[in-house]
Write a structure and sequence with these properties.
The protein is of the alpha+beta class. It folds into two domains: about 1-60, Ribosomal protein L9, N-terminal domain (Ribosomal Protein L9, domain 1, 3-Layer(aba) Sandwich); about 75-150, Ribosomal protein L9, C-terminal domain (Ribosomal Protein L9, domain 2), CATH 3.10.430. The chain is about 35% helix and about 30% strand. It contains three helices and nine strands. The protein has helices at about 25-30, 40-70, 95-105, and strands spanning about 1-5, 20, 35-40, 75-80, 90-95, 115, 120, 125-135, 135-145. The protein has a four-stranded mixed sheet with strand order 4-9-8-6. A three-stranded antiparallel sheet has the order 2-1-3, covered by helices on one side. A two-stranded antiparallel ribbon has the order 5-7. A hairpin with a 2-residue loop joins strand 8 (about 125-135) and strand 9 (about 135-145). The longest helix has about 30 residues, at about 40-70. The radius of gyration is 21 Å and the shape is elongated. The N and C termini lie far apart (about 55 Å).
Length: about 150
């Protein structure tokens, strides 16, 4: 089934793209969520008219994400946690903790965009990727230190 995307969908494409998806995905998710419309002649004509506005919005979004990538790249987030014997953490550092520390630094990032495969359970530096836009990620360093050293 051919659809025209009305919003950017991470797994499919950007706004204005014409994509082919399975009918169930279209019927049950994309169309009810108003993320896409069926690619009919009328909708294609409307898309052709709105192409310049869509291109302007895409450029603005890219500029914003590139600015965020520059702001995030090289950022070191230090999180102090309680440690026990042999420097093992009590608990772990999660995406929520990292999001809070970034907010304290003045960088607003949704915790769902922090790509942390599993919580950090060791002391030291860890590279963490953050999804900032359509197929764009930025890497930050999360430094976990003992609470007494903070």
């Amino acid at each position: 089934m051919e659809l025209i995307l009305k919003t950017t969908v991470d797994t499919l494409g950007e706004e204005g793209d014409i994509v082919k998806v399975k009918p169930g995905y279209a019927r049950n998710y994309l169309l009810p969520q108003r993320m896409a419309v069926v690619a009919t002649k009328t909708n294609l004509a409307i898309l052709k008219q709105e192409n310049s506005a869509i291109a302007t919005r895409k450029k603005k979004q890219r500029d914003e994400t590139e600015a965020l990538v520059k702001k995030l790249s090289g950022t070191v987030v230090t999180i102090a946690q309680r440690v026990g014997e042999e420097n093992k953490l009590f608990g772990s550092v999660t995406a929520g903790d990292i999001g809070e520390k970034l907010a304290e630094l003045g960088i607003e990032v949704d915790r769902k965009k922090i790509l942390l495969a599993e919580p950090i359970k060791t002391i030291g530096d860890t590279e963490v990727a953050i999804k900032v836009g359509f197929q764009m990620t930025a890497a930050i360093t999360v430094r976990v230190v003992p609470l007494e050293a903070a």
